[in-house]
Task: inverse folding
């Protein structure tokens, strides 16, 4: 099993509902966020194109944060979800330095925190909160190891990219382009 | 042209707008780690060569500072942790892939070893010293018998300690300026140079000072070579590495690095050391202080610049 997310940049309008949903669902402390929205503008006026991307931890298959963690607080669970065990985290900051996506932060309680793919919902068969709340339904969540899953079919049908694949992290958030 | 902005208002403390998760504690420790590695390396080296009476500062006196230095360095590391009460987790796990785990375990071995190594020389430096408890005397007597064998272990461990201060940073692929294998040898050389400078500061014997000025001179030349090599590597690298090098070649770290690290911390000491070796009336502490200053500045700038360098997307 390999959980992944696909985000349709053609449907995303950059409303940031995913960010708010995550903050509420996961009780993210005020002033912090586990996901964020990027507006990328390319070209020169008047020939401009714009892309919106909802970004978060990429739950990398080759996760540098897990490799550099000195205490096994950062670990990978069934389905490839990268998690942080707060009771094992010493707050050394190594994983934050190691993440090319800057997806991690120090929780006010001292441990490192990040997107969990809403594992508490996924275990119940639900989608992550950001996926369910999206008003344009531009986000898809599923198992890419299953060729019949919606996300696998989508990735076969559409063109996609991942972020900084050259960093060698094998990210699992796909952006449909 | 591509312009990317976060429109959802992300402002995670110490991450945005630029990464600054490591403040003064890490570079300060990296300096202390390198300095201790340098002092212990030379102490062990000249112990093996039976030079304790000829070079008493390097063999016996300088290492006595290392347990205190390590204590201060470890305290700085402790301050850096944000989940402090869980620090013991470092010692319930061994993670081969994590340089920080390697460092924690190396320190676990080096710190007690530095204490017993220093203690074994106390009676040679302070003849009237009394350890009071017989069990301490027994341990030290046994230790002195195997001191030369332990010296080999200390040489090995001090190289790991000095090298790992650089590898800690170079293992982060996400920060292009750190992601160069040169950082390990560079920090090791800089640490050995800091150790030599510290010995020059302490030493009262002209012969010892001269020897270490010569050693330091060669170490600084090696450092300059490694720095040039590092930038050549970056400039021959990928776009992100070129961008990282440009932080120092016209970017915000240019003056700090080339004037305060390379200029004041390496090139000026080289000239001072040449004059000292020619017996010109230059106080030896001048170049030593500049070398120590350059060594600490190097760590601060490298840690700072690494966090400012990033992948472009």
Result:
């Amino acid at each position: 099993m390999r959980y992944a997310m696909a985000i349709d940049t053609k449907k995303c309008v950059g409303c940031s509902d995913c960010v708010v949903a995550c903050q509420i669902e996961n009780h993210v402390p005020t002033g912090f966020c586990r996901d964020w929205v990027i507006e990328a503008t390319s070209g020169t006026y008047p020939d401009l194109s714009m892309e919106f991307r909802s970004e978060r931890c990429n739950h990398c298959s080759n996760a540098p944060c897990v490799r550099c963690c000195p205490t096994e607080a950062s670990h990978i669970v069934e389905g490839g979800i990268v998690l942080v065990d707060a009771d094992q985290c010493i707050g050394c900051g190594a994983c934050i330095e190691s993440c090319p996506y800057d997806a991690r932060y120090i929780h006010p309680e001292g441990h490192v925190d990040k997107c969990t793919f809403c594992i508490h919902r996924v275990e119940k068969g639900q989608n992550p909160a950001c996926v369910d709340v999206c008003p344009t339904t531009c986000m898809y969540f599923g198992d890419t190891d299953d060729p019949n899953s919606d996300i696998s079919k989508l990735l076969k049908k559409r063109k996609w990219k991942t972020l900084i694949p050259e960093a060698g992290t094998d990210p699992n958030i796909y952006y449909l382009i | 042209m591509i312009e990317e902005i976060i429109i959802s208002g992300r402002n995670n403390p110490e991450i945005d707008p630029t990464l600054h998760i490591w403040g003064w504690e890490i570079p300060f420790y990296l300096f202390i780690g390198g300095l201790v590695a340098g002092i212990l390396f030379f102490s062990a080296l000249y112990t093996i060569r039976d030079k304790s009476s000829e070079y008493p500062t390097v063999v016996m006196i300088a290492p006595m500072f290392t347990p205190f230095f390590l204590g201060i360095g470890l305290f700085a590391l402790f301050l850096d942790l944000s989940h402090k009460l869980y620090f013991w987790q470092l010692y319930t796990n061994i993670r081969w892939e994590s340089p920080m785990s390697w460092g924690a375990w190396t320190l676990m071995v080096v710190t007690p070893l530095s204490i017993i190594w220093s203690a074994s020389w106390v009676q040679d430096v302070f003849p009237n010293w009394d350890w009071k408890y017989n069990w301490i005397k027994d341990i030290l007597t046994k230790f002195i018998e195997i001191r030369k064998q332990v010296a080999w272990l200390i040489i090995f461990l001090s190289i790991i300690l000095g090298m790992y201060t650089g590898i800690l940073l170079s293992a982060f692929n996400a920060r292009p300026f750190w992601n160069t294998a040169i950082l390990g040898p560079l920090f090791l050389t800089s640490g050995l140079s800091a150790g030599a400078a510290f010995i020059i500061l302490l030493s009262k014997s002209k012969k010892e000072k001269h020897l270490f000025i010569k050693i330091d001179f060669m170490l600084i030349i090696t450092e300059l070579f490694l720095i040039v090599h590092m930038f050549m590597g970056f400039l021959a690298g990928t776009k992100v590495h070129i961008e990282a090098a440009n932080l120092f070649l016209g970017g915000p770290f240019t003056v700090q690095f080339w004037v305060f690290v390379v200029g004041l911390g390496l090139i000026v000491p080289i000239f001072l050391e040449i004059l000292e070796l020619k017996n010109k009336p230059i106080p030896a502490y001048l170049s030593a202080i500049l070398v120590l200053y350059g060594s600490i500045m190097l760590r601060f700038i490298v840690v700072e610049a690494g966090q400012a360098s990033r992948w472009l997307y």
Summary: The mean pLDDT of chain B is 95. The domain at 25-308 of chain B is CATH 1.20.1630.10 (Formate dehydrogenase/DMSO reductase fold). Chain B is about 70% helix and 0% strand. Chain B touches chain A through 48 residues (CB under 8 Å).
